[in-house]
Amino acid sequence: MATTSRSTKRADAARNIERALDAAITCLSQRPNATMAEIAKEAGIGRVTLYAHFASRAELLEAVVTRVIEAGERTLSGIDLDGDPRGALTRLITGSWQLVDQARSIIAAAEGEIPPERMRALHGSPAARVEALIARGRQEGSIRADMPATWQVAVLHQILHGAGAEVAAGRLEPNEAPGLIITTVNAILDPH
């Protein structure tokens, strides 16, 4: 009987965590400064329960960013990166922009509370995909090789997030961003 009780408690805890993460994504997508109380209310759980699973807003934000990046990874892993590296990079940028656009409020909330080095670590897998593609383009001569590949990846990342900030500020339409991002990145990476 004790095992059944523990299993039920674990299942309840897992459901509460899922509800909290879903609620955090909903709330933070609408308001990057959503409070723990608002998130708990959206999840249909008490603040004490929320704090039992996430000791701080920063801890909750890290879990949310992890979830969003993992979902993004599933999407990005389906993008064809074969063939011409510049064409593959264009496809990857388009797919990445859609994810950044969907998660820009969550990213804005996280950047204020999660240290930059931790944000970089959370973005490690997407960055590795871009870095491998840039390395292939450099080797084939379609991407300039006179600057570090890590710099090129960092600049691409900043351009994506900068476009998100411009959209959030109302200075750029979301549907215009991919073309501008691709044009900017191509100008920076062009070996000629």
TrEMBL record:
Q: Does the keyword DNA-binding apply?
A: yes
Protein name, as recorded = TetR/AcrR family transcriptional regulator
Which keywords describe this protein according to UniProt? DNA-binding, Transcription, Transcription regulation
Domain HTH tetR-type intervals: 14-72
InterPro entries in the cross-refs: Homeodomain-like_sf (IPR009057), HTH-type_TetR-like_transc_reg (IPR050109), HTH_TetR (IPR001647), Tet_transcr_reg_TetR-rel_C_sf (IPR036271)
Q: Which PROSITE patterns would you find in this protein's record?
A: HTH_TETR_2 (PS50977)
- The protein's superkingdom reads Bacteria
DNA-binding stretch(es), residue numbering of this chain: 35-54
GO MF, one term, reads: transcription cis-regulatory region binding
Segments crossing the lipid bilayer: none
Q: Per the record, a Pfam family?
A: TetR_N
